[in-house]
Amino acid sequence: MAAPAKKAPAPVRTLPVKAAAPVKSAAEVRAAAALEAAAAQSRAALQSQMRAWEDGVRQFSLKKFSAAHAHFKEAAAGPAAHIADKARSYAQICERRTSEPALELKTAEDHFTYGVERLNARDMQTARKHLDRALALDPNAEHILFTLALCCGLAGDGDGACENLKRAIALEPRNKVLARQDPEFLGLAQQMPNLRALLSVDAAENQ
């Protein structure tokens, strides 16, 4: 009886040998560490800038302008340019708010004068607020009514313009002539039919 044939030995598998990582020089290690430290510092600076910006906005919304100013100045020195630009703008607003003396408006003329100043600056909301206050203190002041009519018209309130001018004319008829000679009233009359009708020349005036 023949002996069984011997099996060929299985081939030996060898694992691929990984190439050894190049050894970094001391200079390269120091450079990598410096880059990582710089990146960490940059991230910390950005986070600090964001906190300062958010704190500034929070204080600004509470009208605490001095505190907000300090936070905005800090944010303006941060690395993110778009945040720094906005922070500088808000810091300037805070400076104006803290440097402006508080208004002491007591009389009708005080409110009227300030209302005219705001009207010339085209700050219609503030102008109307103070002209309304002036009229409340002096209801029969035809010059206040005349200016309030103009303010209403420029703010787009045709009914208010017409009503206040009508009262101003009733108290002082010469206001009708003044309104006809005023370029701003004439411009408004082209847009507001009720004001145009009020300023039109009637038959009685032609006699």
In short:
With 207 residues, this protein is mostly helical. It has helices at residues 26-61, 65-76, 81-99, 108-120, 124-137, 142-154, 158-171, 174-181, 183-191, 193-199, 203-206. The chain has 11 helices and no strands.
Low-pLDDT parts are: none
* CATH topology grouping of the largest domain: Serine Threonine Protein Phosphatase 5, Tetratricopeptide repeat
How would you sum up the major sheet? Answer: none
Structural class: mainly alpha
CATH architecture of the largest domain: Alpha Horseshoe
What is the H level of CATH, i.e. the homologous superfamily of the largest domain? Tetratricopeptide repeat domain
In the CATH hierarchy, what is the class of the largest domain?
Mainly Alpha
* Fraction in beta strands: under 5%
Number of helix segments? 11
Count of domain modules: 2
**Residues in helices, as a percent range:** over 70%
Q: How many beta-strand elements? A: 0
Fold topology:
Layout: H1 26-61, H2 65-76, H3 81-99, H4 108-120, H5 124-137, H6 142-154, H7 158-171, H8 174-181, H9 183-191, H10 193-199, H11 203-206
Helix pairs in contact: 1-2, 1-3, 2-3, 4-5, 5-6, 6-7, 9-10
Give me some keywords for this one.
11 helices, single chain, Serine Threonine Protein Phosphatase 5, Tetratricopeptide repeat, 72% helix, mainly alpha, 207 residues
Description:
This protein has 207 residues and is an all-alpha fold. It has 2 domains: 34-99; 108-202, Tetratricopeptide repeat domain (Serine Threonine Protein Phosphatase 5, Tetratricopeptide repeat, Alpha Horseshoe). It contains 11 helices and no strands. The protein has helices spanning 26-61, 65-76, 81-99, 108-120, 124-137, 142-154, 158-171, 174-181, 183-191, 193-199, 203-206. The N and C termini lie far apart (154 Å).
